[in-house]
Amino acid sequence: MSLLELADRLLNRGVVLTGEATISVAGVDLIYLGLNVVLSAVENLKTSHAAPASRGHDG
Amino acid sequence: MRLLLHAVTTADGTEASPTGLRDQPCVRVAMNGLAAWATQFSEAPVTFGRADLLEHHALVSRLSADHAGVLPARFPTWLADAQALRAELERRQADFAAALERVRERVEIAMTVLWRSLPEHEPPPEAATPGRKYLLGRQQAFSGSDRRRARARQLADETERLVGDDLVDVRHQVCPSATVALSSAVLVPRERAENVKVRLARKEPDVRILINGPWPPYTFADVV
Predict the structure, then answer these.
(1) Extents of the domains making up chain B
(2) Which of A34, B112, B199, B223 has the most crowded CB, counting CB atoms within 10 A?
């Protein structure tokens, strides 16, 4: 879930400039994506290894 | 040449550029108290993958640690060259300065709340006619959905109460999917982040609460 949560933020939020937008990550269009779509899209990015970035804690 | 933007920061902190994505050079363009950081590619990669996302995140996290304020860029954001980036900084200078002030010395805590079970499948209601049975079934489904939404809102309220005086800003997504009850981004002072995480991590009988971060303020960099 940590990688999915992170990917949602990286792909879906943040500063938008009027630069030339690239609209594909792993072959998935990114013009506009809701959380559910992002969660599906990043399935392509998942591997069997845990993400080295921040890890979630089960509270 | 193409530039892949990582973030806009305050112009304090180090001016030394880290290594960019895929070992490409990272350039810094500074103007009027702002600095923009971007990887310089001789030509744009056709596709990005998981490793690129994580590398971008690591780079933005480092910039966040080194500067008072950081506005992460939506990934991937391309600009033609340094001149185009400078022009954007100049054109949006007031917006960026205001947004940087909002996130100055603040970080994002991500909270995802997952249902422990899927929605209950109650037996369909009995009714004299097929039409009435269908309507009663829909009513039953909606009332279950309403119960879940109410519970998710209760969890959102509880989150804000637990963060208390450390809460700077918060964004909730209530029931964004069948398995997720609540997805929240909480903006807190950097020095209070670990304390807030401890307070938010708790056990509930019907949901699992996952806490991530502290991250750069991705959700609160909404300069469009």
Answers:
(1) 2-103, 106-220
(2) B112
CB-CB under 8 Å, B222 with A53: no
Three-state DSSP state, B202: coil
Per-residue pLDDT tens for B76-134?
888 888 998 999 899 899 999 999 999 999 999 999 999 998 766 666 667 778 787 77
Q: What residues make up the domain containing A14?
A: 3-40
Instruction: Please provide the size of chain B in residues.
Output: 224
For residues B186 and B192, give the distance between their C-alpha atoms in angstroms, rounded to a whole number: 12
Residues B97-128 as b/e (b if ≥16 CB within 10 A, e otherwise) read eebbebbeebbbbbbbbbbeeeeeeeeeeeee
Cβ separation A19–B78 shorter than 8 A: yes
Please state the three-class secondary structure of chain A as a single string.
Answer: CHHHHHHHHHHHCCECCCCEECCEECCEECCCCCHHHHHHHHHHHCCCCCCCCCCCEEC
Query: Does CATH place domain B106-220 in 3.30.70?
Result: yes
Q: How many residues does chain A have?
A: 59
B218 and A10 in contact by Cβ < 8 A? yes
ipTM of this complex: 0.71
Q: Which residue has the tokens 């089960």?
A: A58
Is the entire prediction scored with pTM above 0.80?
Answer: no
Q: Which of B155, B197, B198, B194 is nearest to B173 (CA)?
A: B155
